[in-house]
């Protein structure tokens, strides 16, 4: 499956716009992402290893908060999109 890395987080992945991984749940996928790119951990997880509230995670255009959160099961053909909140006004 593919994890799409938004522009704001690519500085932590050496400029890669996506990562190819094999995972069975969103939690597993995110752990693989931060294991491969440890600099992403503070952008995705808090100090209790919980997904931060200002990053939305989508699986095939559906927010995981509307599914099973990090326990959302994944298929090989799924795409995960990380969407950090953007502040401004």
TrEMBL record:
It holds the Pfam family ThiS. It comes from the Bacteria. This is Sulfur carrier protein CysO.
């Amino acid at each position: 499956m593919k994890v799409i890395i938004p522009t704001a987080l690519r500085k932590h992945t050496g400029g890669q716009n996506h990562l190819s991984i094999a995972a069975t749940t969103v939690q597993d996928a995110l752990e693989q992402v931060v294991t491969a790119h440890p600099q992403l951990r503070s952008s995705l997880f808090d100090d209790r290893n919980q997904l931060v509230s200002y990053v939305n995670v989508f699986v095939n255009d559906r927010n995981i908060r509307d599914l099973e959160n990090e326990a959302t099961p994944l298929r090989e053909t799924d795409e995960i999109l990380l969407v950090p909140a953007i502040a401004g006004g």
